[in-house]
């Protein structure tokens, strides 16, 4: 269960990759724009601002996120992105920090290329930090009792979650697209107690929380916090620097 308020706690810093991605999309007057994995809709609003004449379509598999998006006036719907099929006139497909939850997302990208019209744009951003200490700490703790049983099926059990930027470029080029693929590491400046734990609570720890009782969840946090504080120490000035690698791909069909 996704919590929109928890997710939006770092909205300013989480939104930077979205705008870096959107800036490389050259569509001028798209007829229809799809935001797949729209979350609470705070970024979907910017699609409507950039392309006011376009029909904006928003999907997310979280009912809580879709409800938050609808409160913003966005025509969002609950749905599995794997079941999405582009409607006629879809000229832009954007997915920001969502496809890494789908193991077969590379095949999904190729399917969209086949289904979209020539000249359509696909813009995707996925995290590339699954080998980082934040995720390694979650995996290490989940492997030990009493967590190994309730957390045996959490996502991201290995660091191999997304492809390399070069591999995405190869896949999309071979599918007949012109591509622009790159990666960036953002150094997020965090403050407060257990800042990295609070950051990942809104994202990577969501499936962990879903599998634990409230008492277990609080205990898991207590055990995870010192591991993260060691990996990401607080500076004397009270700031913590949290490196976060992300992979971007913009492809134009045909």
The best one-word shape is: globular
Helix content: 25-40%
Number of strands: 7
- Sheet with the most strands, sense and barrel status: 7 strands, mixed
Provide the residue-averaged pLDDT: 92
Give the strand order, joined by hyphens, for the main sheet: 3-2-1-4-5-7-6
Strand content: 15-25%
Reading the helices and strands in chain order gives HHEHEHEEHEHHEHHHE
Helix count, per DSSP?
10
CA distance, first residue to last residue? 38 Å
Return the structural class: alpha/beta
Radius of gyration, in Å, reads 19 Å
**Ranges with pLDDT <50 over ≥5 residues?**
none
Explained architecture:
By secondary structure, the chain is α/β, with parallel strands linked by helices. The chain contains ten helices and seven strands. The chain has helices spanning 4-7, 11-22, 44-50, 63-71, 105-115, 133-142, 165-174, 195-201, 206-210, 214-231, and strands spanning 32-36, 55-60, 76-78, 90-96, 121-127, 177-191, 239-253. Strands 3-2-1-4-5-7-6 form a seven-stranded mixed beta sheet, with helices on both faces. Helix 5 (105-115) links the parallel strand 4 (90-96) and strand 5. The model has no long low-confidence stretch (mean pLDDT 92).
Name its key features.
254 residues, alpha/beta, 7-stranded mixed β-sheet, 23% strand
């Amino acid at each position: 269960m996704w919590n929109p308020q928890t997710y939006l706690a770092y909205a300013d810093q989480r939104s930077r990759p979205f705008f870096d991605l959107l800036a490389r999309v050259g569509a001028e007057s798209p007829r229809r724009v799809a935001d797949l994995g729209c979350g609470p809709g705070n970024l979907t609003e910017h699609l409507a601002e950039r392309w006011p004449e376009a029909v904006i379509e928003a999907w997310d598999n979280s009912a809580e996120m879709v409800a938050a998006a609808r409160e913003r006036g966005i025509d969002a719907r609950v749905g599995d992105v794997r079941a999405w099929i582009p409607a006629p006139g879809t000229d832009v497909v954007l997915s920001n920090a969502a496809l890494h939850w789908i193991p077969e997302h590379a095949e999904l990208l190729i399917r969209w290329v086949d289904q979209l019209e020539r000249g359509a744009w696909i813009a995707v951003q996925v995290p590339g930090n699954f080998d980082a200490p934040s995720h390694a700490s979650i995996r290490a703790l989940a492997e030990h009792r009493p967590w190994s049983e309730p957390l045996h099926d959490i996502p991201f059990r290995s660091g191999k979650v997304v492809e390399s930027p070069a591999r995405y470029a190869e896949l999309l080029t071979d599918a007949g697209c012109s591509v622009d693929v790159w990666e960036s590491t953002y150094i997020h400046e965090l403050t407060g107690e257990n800042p990295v734990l609070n950051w990942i609570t809104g994202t990577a720890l969501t499936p962990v929380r879903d599998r634990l009782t409230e008492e277990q969840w609080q205990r898991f946090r207590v055990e995870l916090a010192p591991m993260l504080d060691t990996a990401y120490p607080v500076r004397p000035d009270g700031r913590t620097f949290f490196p976060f690698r992300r992979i971007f791909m913009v492809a134009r069909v045909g």
